[in-house]
Design brief:
The chain has helices spanning about 30-40, 45-55; strands spanning about 1-5, 10-15, 20-25. The chain is α+β, with helices and mostly antiparallel strands and about 55 residues long. The radius of gyration is 11 Å and the shape is elongated.
């Protein structure tokens, strides 16, 4: 499971499973990456549930 994050400056990918892990970045600043990671941590359960609802499992 993973999420893609898109912003006006670029995009990034984070793995959600087996744990939250930064995968790649194209153009986002370190500050933006950290901010996104914090949001993922805060909304982890929602993201996992949405993934399972969309993709099954």
């Amino acid at each position: 499971m993973h999420v893609h994050v898109m912003g006006s400056d670029g995009e990034a990918k984070f793995w959600l499973s087996p744990e939250i892990e930064f995968a790649r970045n194209h153009g986002l600043s370190r500050r933006q990456i950290k901010s996104v990671e914090t949001l993922i941590e805060e909304h982890y359960d929602e993201l996992i549930n949405a993934w399972k609802e969309h993709f099954g499992g």
